[in-house]
Amino acid sequence: MSAPTVFVARLAGAGVFDPAGERIGKVRDVVTVPRQDASPRVVGLVVEDTSRQKVFLSIGRLLSIGGGQLIASAISDRRFRQRGGERLLLADVLGRQVRLRDGSGATLEDLSIAERGPGEWEVDELFLRKPKTGPFGKGPTALARWHEVEHEPGAEHDTEHLLASLEELPAADAASAMLDLPQQRMMEVAEDLSDDRLADILEEMHEDRQIQILNALEDDRAADVLDQMEPDDAADLIAHMPADRGETLLELMDPEEAEDVRMLLAFGADTAGGLMTTEPIILASDATVAEALALIRRHEVAPALAAAICVTLPPYEAPTGRFLGMVHFQRLLRYPPNERVGTLLDDQIEPVLSSTSAAEVTRQLAAYNLVSVPVVDPAGRLVGVVTIDDVLDHLLPEDWRAQEEAPRG
Question: According to the lineage, what is the superkingdom (predicted)?
Answer without folding.
Answer: Bacteria
